[in-house]
Design goal:
Blueprint (H helix, E strand, L loop, with lengths): L4 H11 L10 E2 L6 H12 L3 E3 L2 E4 L1 H18 L5
Antiparallel strand pairs: 1-3, 2-3
Helix pairs in contact: 1-2
Length: 81
């Protein structure tokens, strides 16, 4: 099993959210890359974000972003091995 290009686009959209505050959302403009626009739409349809073009994280979305950011940090950590 591997991530699809759609999955990667969705993960990248989720990485844009700031977990430090629930008062800060994102806006995907109509001029954005079509893959980003489509990813935001899918995330909205699945209940991760409040608006089709971004908005705020839902509680489900906040939980997902925690995992996405953790995995991102783990994958990008510099190993001293």
């Amino acid at each position: 099993m591997s991530y699809t290009q759609d999955n990667l686009a969705e993960l990248n959209v989720l990485l844009r959210f700031n977990l430090a505050t629930s008062l800060e959302g994102i806006k995907i403009h109509h001029t954005a890359d079509p893959a980003v626009i489509a990813a935001a739409k899918r995330l909205h349809e699945r209940g991760f974000i409040t608006l089709v073009d971004g908005g705020y994280l839902t509680p489900f979305g906040s939980q997902a972003v925690e995992h996405v950011k953790t995995l991102h940090a783990m994958l990008n950590a510099h190993s001293k091995v």
